[in-house]
């Protein structure tokens, strides 16, 4: 049971990082009028600026998903063929966890404090790295699940544990505004958001 819960903690970590991107990426880069009034600044070109139909952030996130679809089977094959003494999956988890957390934070660290094409290029690069490292972590992690339980009961217990830690990690990502609200009065909205995301990524 100890191993089962240690394994489940890994689900908490990636669910929280995924929740930060899923919940706050568009909110951060394409703030609404209320958010702008609260101190946020649009950092990339807004509106339907690509062929008059698509948004910049929509194109970037769509590219990230396509890139993810390409890297998934490649990294799965690499994990299957790994011959490390630590097993096929552990080296991928070990070496991708920190880059995964760092790339998640860097997604929100666009270099210019105003609307800029350079910020869009930054987001393009780091959203690709985010999807690369989430694949490098999650694909072996998911495969490891089937290798842990030796009985149906053990697999069911592990499945329950990772479901609970997934819910917990996602829930923590949702309450990021509470955390950045603590820092916002002293440092401003965007730095407070970045600090909150960094604290959660460190966890």
Q: How are the elements arranged and paired?
A:
Layout: H1 2-29, H2 33-37, H3 56-81, H4 90-107, H5 117-148, H6 152-174, H7 176-187, H8 189-202
Helix pairs in contact: 1-4, 1-5, 1-6, 1-8, 3-5, 4-5, 4-8, 7-8
- Major beta sheet summary: none
SS field, number of helical segments: 8
Sheet/helix structural class? mainly alpha
Distance between the termini: 22 Å
Uncertain segments of ≥5 residues (pLDDT<50)?
Answer: none
Helix-strand topology string: HHHHHHHH
Please state the average pLDDT score. Answer: 90
Query: What fraction, in percent, of the residue positions are helical?
Result: over 70%
Write down the overall geometry. globular
Total beta strands = 0
Q: What fraction strand?
A: under 5%
